[in-house]
Amino acid sequence: MRGAASSFHIPGYIAGRGRAFFSFFFIECPLWPLIALWALLLMGSPAQAQLQGATQNIAANIEAETQAPAPGDVVTIAIIMKPKPGWHDYWLNPADAGTPLELEWRLPAGVTAGPVRAPVPETLIVSGFMNHIYRAEHAFLIDLKIAATVQPGQQLPIKVVARWSACSDTICVPEGSELSVNLATGKGVIDSARRSRFDVWRSALPVPLDRQGRYAINGKRIDIAVPYPASAGVGDIWFFARTENLLRYAAPQKARRTGDWLVISTEVERDFDGAIDGLLRLGAAQGLEIRALPGVVPKGGEPVTVMGASAPSENLQTTINFGLILGFSILGGLILNLMPCVFPILGLKALALAKSGGDVRTARRDALAYTSGVIASCVALGGLLLALRAGGEEVGWAFQLQEPRVVLLLLLLMVAVTANLAGLFEIGSIGTGDRLTRIGGLGGSFWTGVLAAVVATPCTGPFMAAALGAALLLPAPQALLLFSGLGFGLALPFLAIAYVPVLQRMLPRPGSWLGTFRKIMAVPMGMTALALLWLLWRVSGVTGLLVAGGLVLVLAILLFQLGKRQRGTVPVGGLIALVVVAAIGAVTLLPNEPVAPSAQADYLKSRPFGEARLAQLRGAGRPVFVYFTADWCVTCKVNEATAIERKATVDAFKKAGIVTLKGDFTQPDPAIARFLAKHGRSGVPLYLYYPAGGQPQILPQILTVETLTGLGS
Prior knowledge:
The strands form five sheets. Strands 11, 12, 13, 14, 15, 16, 17, 18 and 19 form a nine-stranded mixed beta sheet that branches. Strands 20-22-21-23-24 form a five-stranded mixed beta sheet, covered by helices on one side. Strands 1-2-8-5 form a four-stranded antiparallel beta sheet, with helices on one face. α5 (322-336) crosses α10 (464-471), α7 (360-390) crosses α9 (434-456) and α13 packs across α14 (575-589). The chain is an alpha+beta fold. The protein contains 19 helices and 24 strands. It is 42% helix and 21% strand.
């Protein structure tokens, strides 16, 4: 050892390590074509990044019309927003995506803030989603009331924490800033230059209409009549609903003019009989604030040109780091290995690696086949998800587990895997010939990877939600790249074991313990099969449960007889044909009769989620906890068992008066899918807390009792 140490030479060591790295990366590791493909797609992607550092994509400043307001006066404050080219922020009702400007005031005694007044927005359609946005510099105006009791010369430090969404045509980034301006009571003098600047900003605000409008709903169609003089010119109009979740924002609008009325026709999401607040845009950045009540809408009239909605410009500069989102996708897939739904598959792969006995070539070949299966499965599921959404279906990640037939097929597969691990039969003995055996080894690793991705879909973890949410807005090539990144991250631990010698040496050698470990792994696989059987009952009712139970029994008998034949004791006869016929019949006839949500215990007495109910509770000043779950989501069920449905949580919510709304996504639900997409999610879980009179908070995807009990404090 001393001789070896004395001959150590740093440049030679580095050169040797460099040659080893080159050999590994370009010769031994056939993953470099995939990495090179990723690099080429990133360089050619329209979403390619420019490094932003700490610079925000939308700069915000604050300005007061006068810094010496008189006691008893009202002073106007402007929050000035300056988007970079290719970026935008949102109107008070952002529509299908984004979040509006949120202000948290920190005001001295004697000063109160009024509501935010926003300029007339424009429209933008991205991947079929409507956005009410601002691309150019603009200002939100807020009136501050100075109490008459404030003493002359008193210092009034005005501070506000502003938060907003800065978005390009492909991605949104939360941004914020703490803004401040110092006032001191005086004579209320406003200099001419500042008054002119504020007058320009005021001119961009919509004008309140002095008469009420009317509306009538007929099925999915709504006609909104706005009083407007027949002698006044009009053109390029668009109606922006301030009342949320009533209109289909992306639906086309038509307009006609009849006498002293303008009538706008579009589509509604739901029936409604209250007041509708909104903004009618008239031409270039001119608008009217209106309120409409149910009433008689005039018939007939002449058509009027509608402004419509712009699509993303191909020439707009996008400065978001797509590579960062791809990194989130890979990291999300890596963390997914820690989720309980993936554990049984990891056990299968660990068993295969242990059987390799340290054979580097075999381990690497199997790891690549496994990786190929995982990536192929993720890309296929992602492509199908994008295709369904492009066809108008409101679906999210793990949509396939909302289909009873898919759940039944997965159940049968899990039963077969469990029987194999328990020793009822051997997969390796099926088929003849050395060639088929060799193909079966790689094929087994490939299909294990496919199975890992399919079983992992009920789970979402940190970083993964942001990446999948972005994938729903990106063009198809970049979206599929994100899905492949998710699969790469999921397979990364086994690639590391196969290609990093230090990790290989840590693997135990084959021995008699493998048989025991194999039987132990049958337990989590069997529990997964039971979970799928329970899920099948939830999505297809008692009839589906009976059909599946009978088919599982037939499959178990077949596999038991097959094991006997492999041991040379009993011929299997025609059982294979019987189980195939039974499986086809069961899949064809399987009913879709979901069990009512009330079948589950709910100690929080949760109410079913609905956006109207949420708006009603918030309007009444109630704090609300909203959670979205599904019976096929293992992470959801773990959170419910360990954090949500706990006595400490129930007691804390009761003390704080927190109302709980539960969105069940076990069955396809377009309304929930749209709400999830609005919050940048493509699947469950999603946990939101709406404090009384405050802004909503997105909670972590892994909950603790302490997280929930601290909400009301």
